[in-house]
Structures are given as structure tokens and as C-alpha cells.
Amino acid sequence: MKPYVQTGLAWSAGATLVACGISLVASSQLPDSTQIPIHWGADGSPDKFADREGATFMLWMMPAISAFIATCMAIAATVDPRQANLSASRKAYLICWIGAMIVLTGIHAGIAFMMTRTGAPSSGSPEMIRWIIAACGALFILIGNYLPKTRSTFMMGIRTPWTLSSDMTWEKTHRLAGRLFMLAGALGIIGAFVFNGIWLALQLSVLAIGATLISVIYSWFVWRTATDREEGSGYIV
User: Fold this and answer.
1) Domain spans, the chain
2) 128, 113 Cβ separation under 8 angstroms
3) Quick check: 129 and 44 in contact, CB under 8 A?
4) Per the confidence metrics, is the pTM higher than 0.70?
5) How far is residue 137's CA from residue 208's CA, in Å, rounded to a whole number?
6) Residue 202 burial (CB count, 10 A)
7) What's 51's DSSP letter?
8) Ordered per-residue pLDDT tens for the chain, 237 residues
9) Fewer Cβ atoms within 10 A, N terminus or C terminus of the chain?
10) Whether the Cβ atoms of residue 21 and residue 12 lie closer than 8 Å to each other
């Protein structure tokens, strides 16, 4: 097993243990009620409820999700056909992996807090949602910083037919994508404390989709003039 995969699994194990601890503590503090919130709308108001048993089940879902994502990341690093390139991109891969674990643990802590605060004045506050969105924006900035340093792989980055068939196209596309994702993250952090309602929930997703689409379209234009693009094997079937 590659050292960076071991590092990712170690961080994941730590994050999963913390999430289990949060679930254990929160489960013991859940009120005896059939109206425990388990989902919140864009304005921070609870819009889905469950009894104590259902809420406990939801609390233990996040550690399971974290473990599943960690497993997928480890497997992906093993099966990628371009192992040398993925190893060269290991810092970016680890940032995505570890960052996702930290953000998921933070989200879990926020959800557990709001579930145990049923009936309290702050239980419907959107402030927790704002901080979760801001944390995701910070992760976008970190990812954007490392995207230009990646090499062509099948498991991360802007993977289009054009970037995967031309190293020049990959490099130029990810230089632009890195800047766009950093901008999206910065704007997302600002938007987390400016927007309300549905735009509070959607603004970061819109920014991320926009950055991705621009990068995909740009990759095609770069590929058209790339000097190292593949023209085919020449086989006749």
C-alpha cells in the first residue's frame, strides 16, 4: 500500500472515530420526543423529523458514510491506470481526501448539536448552515490551489477526453480550473454570510458547476491546438 494511501486511511480512521464519539454522546442526549429534527431547510428551520430511534439511526449514518468514502478513495488510488501520475499528484489527492473527512466530521458535529438542541431558540438558526457552507468554500480554495500541480489521472481533476489524451491540455486546463475553484471558494465563503433562503444553499453549488463547465469547455479549445494530442492507434478492425 502506497504511503499516501496509508496517510489518507489514518486520517480517515481518526475522523471516523471522532464521528463515532459525537454519535455516542449525541445519542445519549437526544430528547424523548417524536419531533427530533433530522433535516433542515435553507433558512435553518427543521423540515423533517423522527422519533428517538430514527434520530439515533441518522446519527450513526455519518460515521458509516465517512468510512465508505475513505474506502472508495483508497480503492481508487489502487486501480487508477496512471499510477505514476497519481503518485505525482498525491498532495492534491490527499487534500481532497483529508479535507472531505474533516468537513464531513464538522457537518456531523453541527447536525448532532442541532438534533440535541430540540426546542432551544438556536435549534432553527441558519448560523450552523452558514459555517458548513463556509467550510466547503475553504475546501474549494485548498483544492484549487493544488489542481495546477496534478498530473493526468482517471480518478481526480477535470477528466475530459481532451485532458486525458493530451498532457499539455491537462496542464493548461488545470491552471485555469485552479484559479476558478479558488475564486468559487472565496465567493462561496462570502456568500455564506450574505445570502439567505434558497440562495444560501445553492450559491456554492452554482459557483462550482460554473467553474467546472468553464474548465471543460476550455479544455476542448486547448486540445484543438495541442501538439501532443493523440490521433489514434491506426488499427483497422
Assistant:
1) 1-120, 126-228
2) yes
3) yes
4) yes
5) 10
6) 14
7) -
8) 889 999 999 999 999 999 999 999 999 888 887 788 888 776 667 878 888 889 999 999 989 999 999 999 999 999 999 999 999 999 999 999 999 999 999 989 988 988 887 655 444 556 778 888 999 999 999 999 999 999 999 989 999 999 999 999 999 999 999 999 999 999 999 999 998 878 888 899 999 999 999 999 999 999 999 988 765 545 555
9) C
10) no
